[in-house]
Design brief:
This protein is an alpha/beta fold and about 300 residues long. The protein is built from ten helices and twelve strands. It has helices at about 15-25, 45-55, 70, 75-95, 130-140, 160-170, 190-205, 225-235, 265-270, 275-295; strands at about 5-10, 30-35, 60, 100-105, 145-150, 155, 175-180, 185, 185-190, 210-215, 220, 240-245. It has a six-stranded parallel beta sheet with strand order 2-1-3-4-5-10, with helices on both faces. Helix 5 links the parallel strand 4 (about 100-105) and strand 5. Helix 1 (about 15-25) packs across helix 7 (about 190-205). The chain is globular and about 55 Å long. About 45% of the residues are buried.
């Protein structure tokens, strides 16, 4: 813990927000937790008022419109949260001198690469969700102390996610058909929370340059590969998971075929990239399984 600095966390009720708050509490930091009911990010006056009241040293923006498919038909509404909200935070942080850590997504890329996307790779979103998140990135990167942390394939204990869904389906399905033509990096929200804390500390110390960072686990797999690993950790037969293609699950928003992100910028900040996705999943799994089992009706 240092001085009397305050860390303000928006989207505090979500899966990542909860883990960020837990990490900050573990470190003994003073925090202000604001969920959607406590702060409407689309209201510029409310955002400015919140920062002027609490005067945080660091703002961690975990709030977002994450309904990817709904954004296709409600892009203006998604843009208000994913684009206007970060812009309001950026303006308020610029006025107060606070560091802004903004969580973004792999969807800002077209998803057609064959090698990991570097932090400075050209963007080119192919969905409304991706376009709205890119608008938020641009607003944050327009201020001196603005940091964008892109993540992907996030899972944890605090909310619905792919890992929890597969745990549930294993108990009710003989076999599962899972997409094997989308590659990415399953990332534990608790690991990302730790990275955000370390990056914020580096920003305050002046050792972590502002800009874009990629907050995903090391390694890569497909949804099919991830599900087989989930079954293995459950003690179930991984061969009950069968590979299929994206065409079998057509959705309003196109999914990136390739979401693997590179982590080269961490060296400039003196930080270590996140660990391998299998190692993280193995550590996270018992608690996720416990929570999912408790919440699933018998």
């Amino acid at each position: 813990m240092s001085d009397n600095r305050i860390w303000l966390v928006t989207g505090a009720g979500g899966m990542l927000g909860q883990d960020v708050l837990a990490r900050l509490a573990e470190a003994g930091e003073r925090t202000v937790a604001l969920d959607r009911a406590a702060l409407d990010l689309t209201d510029a006056d409310a955002v400015r008022g919140a920062l002027n009241t609490h005067l945080p040293a660091v703002v961690v923006n975990c709030a977002a419109w994450t309904a990817v498919d709904d954004a296709e038909s409600q892009e203006k509404d998604a843009l208000r949260i994913n684009g206007d909200g970060p812009a309001h935070l950026a303006a308020a942080c610029a006025a107060t001198g606070a560091v802004l850590l903004h969580v973004s997504t792999d969807y800002v890329f077209p998803g057609d690469a064959t090698t990991p996307y570097a932090e400075d790779a050209p963007t080119g979103p192919r969905s409304a969700y991706g376009r709205t998140k890119l608008a938020g990135e641009r607003a944050v990167l327009g201020i001196e102390r603005g940091y964008v942390v892109r993540t992907a394939w996030l899972y944890g204990t605090g909310g619905p996610n792919f890992v929890r869904t597969m745990i549930k389906l294993e108990g009710v399905k003989d076999t599962l058909d899972v997409v094997d033509d989308q590659r990415g990096q399953p990332t534990w929200s608790a690991d990302l929370a730790g990275l955000l804390y370390d990056l914020g500390r580096g920003a305050l110390a002046g050792t972590a340059p502002a800009g874009v960072y990629h907050g995903t686990s090391s390694g890569e797999t497909t949804w099919y590969g991830l599900t087989r690993e989930i079954f293995r950790l459950l003690g179930a037969d991984p061969d009950r998971v069968r590979p299929t293609t994206s065409e079998a699950f057509v959705r309003p928003a196109p999914r990136p075929a390739y979401s693997v992100l590179g982590h080269d910028r961490f060296a400039a900040a003196g930080l270590t990239p996140l660990r391998d996705w299998r190692t993280a999943l193995t550590e996270a799994f018992p608690e996720i399984h416990r929570v999912q089992t408790k919440e699933t009706p018998a």
